[in-house]
Amino acid sequence: MNVLVTGGAGYIGSVVVEELVRARHSAIVLDDLSSGHRDAVPPLAYLVKGSIGDPESLGQAFQAKSIDCVIHLAAKSGVAESMARPDLYEQVNVTQGTFLLDTMRAHGVTDLVFSSSAAVYDPSAPMPLTESSPLRPSNPYGETKLRFERILEERAATGGIRYVALRYFNVAGASIDRGEDHRGETHLIPLLLDAARGAREPVPIYGSDYPTRDGTAIRDYIHVVDVAEAHVRAIRYLADGGENRALNLGAGQGVSVREVIAAVETVTGRRVPTVPAPRRQGDPPALIASSDAARRVLGWSPQFEGLNVILETAWGWRVRHPEGYKE
Ligand SMILES: NC(=O)c1ccc[n+]([C@@H]2O[C@H](COP(=O)([O-])OP(=O)(O)OC[C@H]3O[C@@H](n4cnc5c(N)ncnc54)[C@H](O)[C@@H]3O)[C@@H](O)[C@H]2O)c1
């Protein structure tokens, strides 16, 4: 298939492109490089540098090849930034995303795999979260993801689109050649690895008074290659006539911030400097996935099991790329 991947120069998108190429699909990447990297795009993919909100760039991407389906990862994705700049999140994640859908329609493309998030759920719901758990985002980032899912639902109801929304939990780890390199990083694992290398200040632990087993926030970490592989299965599922739906992608295990720190110290053999900090607004105490539906519907199951395996791959990539991507 010819697959248009928006955000394919980003952390997860570049690994999705790797997996597409491995499965003999052809990938066209549309990315404005606002947080992605030209060097992250696998050599066999074709990169159009531009925004999903820009008609010319979208036109170029849709005309590069006859597109069979779209994997839409391009987004603003910082929880804290979304609290400070909700309008920006609305514009990129909803308005520009809707423009992408309009452009798909104009080009007769119906199938879409969308990067949604655990942030759509009500964090006070019982864990693990299933796709039918209550939806109530606790920050503007999650609200924009949920609103875009609703738009997909509406358009699917009138037959304009066919979609799978993949609700990722905390994506982490690296492939051999591609890893996480965000300027102004906010994700816990790359921050801890850099602190372990002595390449940054002590890492703030936001909140040690949560109602969890050790007082720190609990998350479900899933390997980026496993997440990427689910996309390859999802485009095949849609091509085979699968139903419109949302699917969780997580490991099904909650790990606390303190447990992640201890595991980073074990894997790297180094001490990680940290500093206590107040809770961040919009950060829920715990998010844990049930991914039974993805297993059943896509025949997917995580291959990189356990936090240590995730950390070993992330650490290996960081040691090989201490400065991240060149461009
Ligand atoms: N990282 C996680 O744990 C996680 C969890 C849940 C959901 N997600 C979602 O997965 C997707 C990818 O996340 P990521 O961690 O790889 O982030 P990322 O920032 O590395 O990737 C996003 C990519 O989209 C590009 N982009 C942003 N706005 C654009 C625009 N208007 N037009 C074209 N390109 C644009 C960026 O340059 C970047 O390459 C996002 O939609 C995010 O919300 C990520």
Automatic annotation (TrEMBL):
It comes from the Bacteria. Homodimer. Keywords: Carbohydrate metabolism, Isomerase, NAD. InterPro entries: Epimerase_deHydtase (IPR001509), NAD(P)-bd_dom_sf (IPR036291), UDP_G4E (IPR005886). Its cofactor is NAD(+). Belongs to the NAD(P)-dependent epimerase/dehydratase family. Residues 3-250 form the NAD-dependent epimerase/dehydratase domain. GO terms for molecular function: UDP-glucose 4-epimerase activity. It is an enzyme of class 5 (isomerase). GO terms for biological process: galactose catabolic process via UDP-galactose, Leloir pathway. Gene3D superfamilies: NAD(P)-binding Rossmann-like Domain, UDP-galactose 4-epimerase, domain 1. The gene is galE. It catalyses: UDP-alpha-D-glucose = UDP-alpha-D-galactose. This is UDP-glucose 4-epimerase. Coiled coil: none annotated. Pfam families: Epimerase. Pathway: Carbohydrate metabolism; galactose metabolism. PANTHER family: UDP-ARABINOSE 4-EPIMERASE 1 (PTHR43725:SF53), UDP-GLUCOSE 4-EPIMERASE (PTHR43725). Its EC number is 5.1.3.2.
